[in-house]
Amino acid sequence: MAKIWVEAYGCSASFADSEMISGLIVNGGHTLAANSSDSDLNLIVTCSVKDATANKMVNRIKNLKSKPLVVAGCLPKAEQKTVEKFSQNASLLGPNSLGKTLEVISTTLSGGRMIQLEDSDLSKIGLPKVRLNPAVGIVEIASGCMSECTFCQTKLSKGDLQSYRIGDIVRQVAIEIKDGCKEVWLTSTDNGCYGLDIGEDLSSLINAVIEIPSKFKIRVGMMNPMYMPRIREGLLKSFDNDKVFKFLHIPVQSGSDKILNDMKRGHTAKTFTDVVYKFRKKFSKFTIATDIIVGFPSETQEDFKQTIDLLNDTRPDIVNLSRYSPRPGTKAADYTQIDVSEVKRRSKIVFDVSSQISFENNLKWIGWKGEVLFDEKSETGIQGRNFAYKSILVKDKVEICEVHQVEIIDATKHSLIGKIAS
Prior knowledge:
Elements: E1 3-8, H1 12-27, E2 31-32, E3 41-46, H2 51-64, E4 69-73, H3 74-78, H4 80-86, E5 91-93, H5 101-109, E6 115-116, E7 136-140, E8 142-143, H6 154-158, E9 162-163, H7 166-178, E10 183-187, H8 202-210, E11 217-220, H9 228-238, E12 247-249, H10 257-263, H11 269-282, E13 287-294, H12 301-314, E14 318-323, H13 340-363, E15 369-378, E16 381-385, E17 391-394, E18 403-411, E19 416-420
Parallel strand pairs: 1-2, 1-3, 3-4, 4-5, 5-6, 7-10, 10-11, 12-13, 13-14, 17-19
Antiparallel strand pairs: 8-9, 15-16, 15-18, 16-17, 18-19
Helix pairs in contact: 7-8, 8-9, 9-11, 12-13
């Protein structure tokens, strides 16, 4: 019986892992500590996708290692030596080794050290969990991916695609809803390739989840553009259902086909623009999120200009911007790097352009009235989401999981400002 502190970083799949780790801890007879200073053991679920993120993980490991420590997630799997350099005594738990959680914790609490980085046969569907947000059920639909991107460590951490069965996922979603969740996130390393290893596809999964007889919303997680030509028409039909947020996260990374080829992304800029145009043509209001990497080693000024042109043409609502940084074990880490000051300059340009586009897109929502599901508390009020998954802040007294009619009265670069209309 021990008090265990769990903290997580990175993507929604990483947070889903932390919820399941916490569930296994509680089911194993331990309790969750309120903070790291009150714990008998600290456990950190790490992310290693960016250099800056990995540095943050190292700092957290240094801060947490004064007590027995378990380092879980992507960093120990992709960079075991990095973790051991800063904490020789920490036990290690891989992102696909959750079934070993209690064994690793027990060994660490007794003064030992255990390394469990190999993929286990344990599916992440049906595991107990302690939710980070009572309104949101995060359901992992697969592990790993089929891509070979030259800049990314994810394949090193999570391996090849392993899709979970549709029936198992539907049962898990039903549990989330029964437990009070009003919003379900279907997440994985790459939703676009879901089911290709088991003869299924993403639209078939969404259609099955839609059939659950309850009122709830589905957020479909990140999918790489390379799979969109294969599943696009099916998704257009699936997204027509009111239960599905009109939201797509499709990371284009660059507007230059040459850079996309060097990145081994498996798609062209046109693949991305075709998706944007088709979804916005069918749905009058549709939120597009994408990712951009600036300063990839072979990116010329012309390549960069093509990225700016793509942003101006497609006008995504959300741009997750990254400055390229070489990650250990990836092919691009061996390439000749662009000067840091030039990468910063390009990053500033993309930030300014994308921020202005986001602001102009948000201004168009002023005056809109409609249903909003409130799913998160913030420092300035409470946040909700409308049918297009737009972030809406209100200062009215509202509780998590409530649904209200809201009128949009103002907008910022990042969110809409609303008031309760009824």
